[in-house]
């Protein structure tokens, strides 16, 4: 860090071209420390430096492996490479102001991780009247309980160990290409393994799998001890007897406060003649007893 301080002026400021945010030398040193913690083997190579008068352009490449927690993201053990260009204003041979095309979030983007704030903002013509803050959490809980869903078990492999949890926040995103999404709470014991995985399994559970639901909704250490399953082509555990199961490649991971939204492309699917179970307001129902309207 001392070497960095020696090449900038006391009034040094760093500006992100993507966000417009400004940071000081102390901010930059803190970001570098965080990056080095998450990517201990990170190496940055200066590819070229172009100087003209009191202006300079610095082109660089960074390569490293995500082996430790970084900005709240569990290690994925993936190797990434990012490139950038810094445009610097020089005073007395030192950098006084820097405009950069890159920040630490780019490393997350390289890992397939994005924050929902990265998505386009709401169009200005869309407004909400009489907004007085967030609704009461109990009201939101009651609202969500009125939504009828199925029950899925999302699975993955943690080395040689199968992992999984019960999830009802599943949705199909599109058929062409076949995309699906699941939303996973970060406190789940399965969450770190899912984050490090390249593929996951989604099993829609049926009316004869009530005990399986209870198992995967619990904190049981080995949830697969009493469950029959088979491996999908890329290793994701698919639960035997489920009305439908699929394996999907994880494409995007959107950070949403306490949860992460996984956007996945389906690579394998299985369907059998069995009835899915229905969940509403904390209770389970037999889908065969539905009355058509």
Rg calc: 24 Å
* Shape field: elongated
Number of helices: 6
- What is the name of the CATH topology of the largest domain? Pnp Oxidase, Chain A
C-alpha end-to-end distance: 69 Å
The percent range for helix content is: 10-25%
Q: How many distinct domains?
A: 2
Task: Note the run of SSEs as H and E.
Answer: HEEHEEEEHEHEEEEHEHEEEEEE
Q: Proportion of β residues?
A: 35-45%
Number of strands: 18
Please state the second-level CATH architecture of the largest domain.
Roll
Low-confidence stretches: 120-131
CATH class category label of the largest domain: Mainly Beta
Helix-strand makeup class:
alpha+beta
- Calculate the mean pLDDT score and round it: 86
Description:
With 293 residues, the chain is of the alpha+beta class. The chain folds into two domains: 2-115, Nuclear Transport Factor 2, Chain: A, CATH 3.10.450; 145-287, Electron Transport, Fmn-binding Protein, Chain A (Pnp Oxidase, Chain A, Roll). The chain contains six helices and 18 strands. Strands 7, 8, 9, 10, 11, 12, 15 and 16 form an eight-stranded mixed β-sheet that branches. A six-stranded mixed β-sheet has the order 2-1-6-5-4-3. β1 (8-16) and β2 (22-23) form a beta hairpin. The N and C termini lie far apart (69 Å). The model is unreliable at 120-131 (pLDDT under 50).
Briefly characterize the structure.
The chain is an alpha+beta fold and 293 residues long. Helices cover 16% and strands 43% of the residues.
